[in-house]
Amino acid sequence: MDRSEIDLTAELALLEITDDERDRLEREITELLEHFSAMNEVDIAGLEPTTHALQEGNRLRQDVLRPDASIADEILEQAPDLEDRFIAIPNVL
Amino acid sequence: MSASKTTGWHHLLETSADDYAEALRARDAAINGFLEIDTDRRRTPGGVSPPDDAPPDGAGPLAGLPLAVKDNIAVRAFQLSCASRILANHVAPYDATVVARLVAAGMVPVGKTNLDEFGMGSATEHSIAGPTNNPWDTDRVAGGSSGGSAAAVASGMVPLALGTDTGGSVRQPAAFCGIYGLKPTYGTLSRYGLVAYASSLEVAGLLSRELGMVRAAYEAASGVDSMDQTSVGLPDAQARPAAAVQRVAFLGGELGLDERTAQAYRRMREVAVGAGLTVEEVELATADAMMPAYYTIAAAEASANLARFNGVRYGERPIFAENPEALVRHARTEGFGAEVKLRVLLGTYVLRSGFQEQYYQRAQRVRTAIRRELASVFANHDLLILPVYPTVAFRHGETDLTAFQQKLADRFTTLANLTALPALSVPAGVYDGLPVGIQAMGPAFSEERLMRFAELVAAELPPERPPAYGVPLCDEIGSGGGA
Prior knowledge:
The structure holds two protein chains of two kinds.
Chain A: H1 3-12, H2 19-36, H3 72-77, E1 82-83, E2 86-87
Antiparallel strand pairs in A: 1-2
Chain B: H1 12-28, E1 34-37, E2 66-70, H2 97-104, E3 108-113, E4 133-134, E5 137-141, H3 147-154, E6 160-165, H4 171-177, E7 180-183, E8 203-208, H5 211-221, E9 247-251, H6 259-274, E10 278-282, H7 287-305, H8 324-335, H9 338-351, H10 357-380, E11 383-387, H11 403-408, H12 414-419, E12 423-431, E13 434-441, H13 447-460, H14 473-478
Helix pairs in contact in B: 3-4, 7-9, 7-10
């Protein structure tokens, strides 16, 4: 993975990368991707992908407030800044 | 049951909560296993109703026992930092289901334990709070990512701890610290209240020096949970794999073990033969593809799961930004550590259009091939025995193993996560001053079989205590003596 690929991927992941970080990431990610080629040795012809560990189908529950789950205020308290019951973000231009 | 040996813990919080808190802080000074300690905060339950099937108060083998919880699992009124700057001041508003169930069984959370940021690492060195030290040798790592939980148990600070295991994060630190570490069948312990890293791979796990306690805690905490779509109930006892162990397969081939681990692995085989088990050797054709498939899938899922950390609704964020996207970018850039950034980038890359087929989709098919191969092993054998890690606890920094070698060394543990199967890290003796753990893996829902095997091993190789921590805190306080 070269520098331009790192920068494009970082852009997609909403991360900023310093020059020092870029060197290290380029080396470490390239090493991992090269090692990933070992997956080419496995015969996967005709195999379905495994997307879930153990699939049991959908499990539904009633869309109701649990009596013991009234934690809305505690959750709001975790916000960095509140105006009444709205979460405020810093000024952006 | 061996849980009865630890009665010293049962009334500790009732009689000496303050002395215990002080002793915990004193003992942890050299270990750095805890990120937060409070023996009082949860002594009076409240706010959360116990599940309907909870045992009556004060009954059962777990009643009154202190519990340490890895800091990526929610415990109401305790911090939930994931050892990350981005969640530095976050407090959990509710209990994870596994915590609520252990509390309902009488356990009392007393602290949150150190980990690699968001569970990403093999040494508990990627933490904002600094590394956890191994109680057997503080120049060495405790393993990771549940290193704080493993070290807290091994150094006699708590009888039981909760961890999470995405690619070996309960079993490897348990092995490095000389205790039991159970990674159960995927889904049997609810993930509600666990901070998601790689959802299709990770499970909550249990760490203890007492097998009886692992068994009791698994019984109390497992079961279907309406808050976790992927949770599964345990089948009836008759429908589960039989607990008896007869035929075991040892992983063979070129394993690349260090001397002490190789010695322990041979010893384990002698113990199995000595116990009258039929021992055969198997090799796995998919062995070399496990670590690549694991890291591809784990990184891909991490990049999606960690997208929620944007500094808007909670967590750390900059005080000023030029536009909303810059706000999010700055929050993530400053909030995430180096290893998290690496995995988020790797995951974003393997999911990018043009590369998805080559990496992510291939890894998902390789995962199917691995599961098929394991199914054929368990068609003929009750258990698969294999190393946990190719080395004993390594020294801090990258002195013994580089970051890449540490990832390569996850090859034995990732197998259980890719296949959703249960695996138990079993203490297999102490060699030249350091413990080695060997892993037993079984078919889905065979936890009891794994524990029966561990009992056979314990008859020959009982778990030992680190020389510096020969007396657990409950006995130290109980006897009124100092360290």
